[in-house]
Amino acid sequence: SQFENSAAAAFSARQNRNDFEGDQQTSESVSPAPTGTTTASTATSGLLKKCLPCTGVKCVPQIQCPAHVRMESHEKPQICDLPAGKFGYCCQTGQNHTVPRSVSRERRTDFPSFLSPDVLDEARRNFEHLMHGVAQIPVRRGLPDFSHGIVFHSTAKEDLHNFALSNNALEQVFTTQLFSKKEQVPVDDIITNNVPVKFTKTPLAQHCQAPVICRNIRSVYRSHDGTCNNPLPARSHWGAAGQPLERMLPPAYEDGIWNPRVHSTDGTPLLGARKISRILLADIDRPHPKYNLLVMQFGQVLAHDVSQTSTVRLEDGDLVQCCSPGGKVALNPQQSHFACMPISVDPDDEFYSAFGVRCLNLVRLSLVPNPDCQLGYGKQMSKVTHFLDASPVYGSSQEAARELRSFRGGRLRMLNDFGRDLLPLTSDKKSCPSEEAGKSCFKSGDGRTNQIISLITLQILFAREHNRVADILSQINPSASDERIFQEARRIVIAEVQHITYNEFLPIIIGPQQMKRFRLVPQHQGYAHDYSPDINPAITNEFSGAAYRMGHSSVDGKFHIRGEHGHIDEVINIPDVMFNPSRMRKREFYDDMLRTLYSQPMQQIDSSITQGLSRFLFRGDNPFGLDLAAINIQRGRDQGLRTYNDYLELMGARKLKTFDQFPSEIGQKLARVYRTPDDIDLWVGGLLEKAVDGGVVGVTFAEIIADQFARFKHGDRYFYEYDAAINPGAFSPNQLQEIRKATMARLICDNADRLTLQAVPLAAFVRADHPGNQMIGCDDPNLPDMNLNAWRL
Ligand code: HEM
Ligand SMILES: [Ca+2]
C-alpha cells in the first residue's frame, strides 16, 4: 500500500536515544509521526499529511496491536492518525499478540492431536513426586520472608481455594512440558497458543475452570468478584478474581512453557538479580520538584485494587523456603521445592556480606488452569478483581464483603478507637507477622493493608468515605434498606476512585500525550461511549511485573512527620512501619500521616531505589531485610517477561544495538551486568528512561500503563462515565455531574479527624509549595463538594 513506505520511514525516523535519564536534549519521541513519503517536516505536526481513516476497525497505538511484531513487513497494518498528532495502526488483531492462523507461518502438524495415556501417567507420577518428594521447609514467623508471604495473602478460605487451583494448573503445565519434550513441539507454537491438544476427555479436564453462569446480566451493581461484567456469556469471567494475567507479548521462558529465562541471548548465564540491583539501582535522594508522596501512596492503593498475584505453597498451605537458615546458602536442587527461584548474593556484596547472607528467598508465582482447557504455557493468577473497582475497600468476593459489612445503615464495620473510626482488627493470624496482643493488624478488603502504615492511612480514608456517603444516603432515604444503601454507597465510592484516578492521578504518571492517544481523558459533560466487549480488562504481566512497579522508585526511605506548625516531630524509617500498625492508635497519627503524604515530596521515578526497600524490606526485628529491586527483577523472569528491547519494538521504536546509546555512566554500568542490550530486564530498562513530557515515567512504562488503564476503562461495562445503553447501573446526568466534582483534596478533608489537619493543597497530589498550587481550608466553599441530594432513591 501507499502507506508502507511512510510507515517504514517513520519507524526509522524514530528515537535518537533521547529518552534516557541524564540526557539533556529535549525532543518529542513518543512515537514517530507519519512523514508521508518525502518531507523533513516531522517536527511540526501542522504540516503533516493525514493518513486514511481505518475502515471497520479502530485506530490504536502500536502497543495495543501487539500482533504487528510478528507480522512480515507486507502484512503490517495500515497506519492511521491518533489524537495528539501521533500515528497508530488500523488494528485487525486487537489485543491478541499472535498473528491469526491464516497469515502465520506453517505450523508443525505431525505431532499427535491428543494426550496418550502414557504421557498422562508419566506426568502424573512426576507431579506426585514433585509435590511430595521434596523437603517441606516452611518459613518461620518473624523473618522478612514471612512478611513477604503476607503480601500474597487474602483470606484463609480464598487461599485454600487458590492453592488447589494452582496445583491443578501446575499439573497441566508439567504435562505440557512432558508432551512438548517427547514430541519436540517448537517453542514458537507453544508461546503463540498454537498447540491445539485438549485436556478434555483426560483426567486433567476436571481441572479446567467451569464457565461462569450469570443469573442477571443486567444487574445494577457490579458483582464483588468481577464476574458478569462482560455481557457475552463466553466472557463472563473476564476481569474476575482468580483469572489469569494477560500478556502483551508471548512469554520468554527457556522452554516456552514455564522454565524461567536463565541465559543471555549469547548463551551465557544471565547475571543475578541482586547484582543488577546493587550495581545499577543505587539509593540517591532525588525529591520530585512537583509531586508529593500521596502520588506514591495512592498509586500503591491502585496497584492493590487491580492486581494481587500469589506464590506456590507447600502441601499444607505453608510458605516455601528456598534458602538455608539465615540465608547462608540456597538449598540444593534435590532438597528444594520445585517452585524455588531464590536470588543469589555474591560474597563481595557490600551489604549482605556482613551478615554472611548468600541467598534471598523467592518462590514462583502460582498459576491458573489453562482457560482454553488445552496444552499451553503457565498463566499467572490474580486473586483480586482486575477492574478498578475499589476492591481493597470491599474485598474481591461476596464472602469477603460480608465479613467487612456491619449490615446496619449500609455501613462497613469499623473499630471505634476513642471516637475515631479505624479499620476493624483482624483475627487472621496469617495476615499479621506478630501474634502479640496489642500489635494486631487491621482488616480490610485487601490482605496487604498492613504492609506500610501510610497504606493503612488511605485504606482507613476510603472506608470512612464509604460510611460518610452511606450515612448521608440514609438520611436522604430513610426507608431504604441496608443492602440498597450499601450498594449505592459502594457504587459512588468506586466512581470517585475512578474519577480521581483518570482525572487527577493518571495524567501525573503518564503525561497528557498518552492520556489523549489512549483516549483516557475524562469528559466534562455527558456520557462516554467507548466501551467495547472485545477489550479484555485483565492485568497484563508487563504491567504488574514491571511497568507499574515504577512506584517502588517513588518511595522515600523516611517519613518526616511534621507538627501542625511545620517543624519536624519525628523521622520514621519506613521498615519500622512495615507490618507494624501500632502507631495508628496514637490519636493524632492519622491526620499527621495525611499531612506528611501531601507535604513531603515523592522521590523521582528513576534508577534510584531507597535502601528501605532494597536492603531492609520487611526487616522487622532482623538486622537485614529483603531487596525489593532484586525481587522485581527476579519476578519479571518468573513471569516470563520479555526483555526491554522487545517492548521498544512493540511500541514502534528501534531496538538498542549498543550500550553507548545510553549516557556513558549508565552504559558502563549496564555493560557490567548484561552481555548485550538484548538482555536488559524490562523493569530495569524502563526505569533508566527519562520521563515523558508532563509525566513521571519514561515512554515504555507510560505506554504499558496507558494500555492497562485503557483496558480498565474501555473494557469495564460498569465504568462510571457510561450511559444506560452500556452500563445497567449508569448514573443519571445529574449524578454524573456530582461525581465529576470529586477530588482527592475533598476526600482528605471529608475523612480527616480534623485534629491537626484543617487544610489541604487544592491539587492534592502536587506539593503545596509548587507555584500555582495553594492550601485551601477544609471548610472553604471553594473546595468542590459532591451534593448527594442527587441520590434520592
Ligand atoms: C510503600 C512501599 C511499598 C512496598 C514495601 C512494596 C512492596 C511490594 C512487595 C513486597 C511486592 C511483592 C513483590 C514480589 O514478590 O513480586 C510488591 C508488588 C507490587 N508493587 Fe509494591 N510496594 C510498595 C509500594 C508500591 C507502589 C507505590 C506501587 C505503585 C505505584 C507498587 C506497585 C506494585 C505492584 C504493581 C506489584 C505487583 C503486585 C502483584 O501483581 O502481585 N508498590 N510491592
Ligand atoms: Ca479491583
Features:
binds calcium ion, disordered N terminus, 21 helices, mainly alpha, binds protoporphyrin IX containing FE, 793 residues, two-stranded antiparallel ribbon, globular
Strand adjacency order, main sheet? 1-3-2
Give the distance, in angstroms, between the N- and C-terminal Cα atoms: 57 Å
Bound molecules: protoporphyrin IX containing FE, calcium ion
Helical fraction equals: 25-40%
Number of helices: 21
Low-confidence stretches: 1-46
Class by SSE composition: mainly alpha
Protein name: Blast:Chorion peroxidase
InterPro entries: Haem_peroxidase_animal, Haem_peroxidase_sf, Haem_peroxidase_sf_animal
GO cellular component, one term: extracellular region
Organism: Drosophila guanche (Fruit fly)
Describe the structure.
This protein has 793 residues and is mainly alpha-helical. It has a domain at 2-103. The protein is 31% helix and 6% strand. It is built from 21 helices and 15 strands. It has helices spanning 2-13, 117-132, 144-150, 156-183, 187-191, 273-280, 293-306, 391-394, 398-404, 453-476, 482-517, 541-545, 589-599, 611-614, 628-638, 644-651, 664-673, 682-688, 699-714, 733-739, 744-751; strands spanning 59-60, 79-82, 86-90, 287-292, 343-344, 359-360, 367-368, 379-380, 415-417, 420-422, 558-562, 568-573, 601-603, 759-761, 775-777. A three-stranded antiparallel sheet has the order 1-3-2. The longest helix is centred in the middle third of the chain and has 36 residues, at 482-517. The protein is globular, with a radius of gyration of 26 Å. The termini are far apart. 54% of the residues are buried. Residues 148, 151, 296, 299-300, 303, 307-309, 451-452, 544, 548-549, 551-552, 554-555, 578, 613, 628, 631, 635 line the site of protoporphyrin IX containing FE.
